[in-house]
Amino acid sequence: MTRFLAKALGVSRSSVTVKRGGQSRLKMITVEGLDDQALRDRIDALVTRG
Length: 50
Prior knowledge:
alpha+beta, 2 helices
């Protein structure tokens, strides 16, 4: 999952970590190196690109 998110968000794999829910369907992810707005913008771009 972290590899997929890192590639999709354009950050290094080491920048993405699972903070909570490693064995759960619901997870809390941390992305280092991006502020909140930059992360939202990248997610929005992925969703709208579809």
